[in-house]
């Protein structure tokens, strides 16, 4: 069996289209058909059924099983390739969010100088996506933010770094700018901008807004932090964010919020992940450094 055939089949199963599957690999449609035929001969079963009138592709019961297993096989092969590469190059990885990492990495990196030549930093804008990367062994350690103080997963080692309260941010000419402290009752008719679904800040905002009967029809969403900050600076919207997302902005005013949600920043290490000896040594060193540097910043 050709391994590449599994890649082709997975793409076909996900797109349900011979045309789209072929385009994804820059090959002809007959190449996808030939790969499918090889797999069906290998496993002695039909993997798909086709509706000629609509040109749609449906997986058979055995096709569904092979799709599930092909994902597992491909993920394992990709991870093996990465691990072999890391063993050859002695490469180690650390995941982080640019907004959070930009604040904490300058304190952490000098203590990891032995690893700098082989360190690869993996950036991701969303803490939720970074958490998934740790969970699925794409990386074994990452600095992330969360709306809960403690993770319960047994495979996870969590080292607290800091706790940040969220603040209300407005333009200097916004009507709320004259206050130093706000409560939720004062914000019921305020227009807000927040990060879109998939970001921890959006989940925290949504929970706070629902708990305080904030008018959700006045909320706008964006995938970009800088876009959110620009909308706030225009005076049309307010924002609810931690200070690390709003740095070097003289055109924004920070206001205290009574009973503000808290944002928890931690190092997460997947201790059940199979990693190279270099990565394990790096993770152990990282845990030690963060404990020493930030033990006084969390309750």
UniProtKB/TrEMBL annotation:
This is DNA-binding transcriptional regulator, LysR family. InterPro entries: HTH-type_LysR_regulators, LysR_HTH_N, LysR_subst-bd, WH-like_DNA-bd_sf, WH_DNA-bd_sf. One of its GO terms (molecular function) is DNA-binding transcription factor activity. Belongs to the LysR transcriptional regulatory family. Residues 1-60 form the HTH lysR-type domain. It holds the Pfam family HTH_1. It comes from the Bacteria. GO terms for cellular component: cytosol. It comes from Alkalibacterium thalassium. SUPFAM superfamilies: Periplasmic binding protein-like II (SSF53850), Winged helix' DNA-binding domain (SSF46785). The keyword Secreted does not apply.
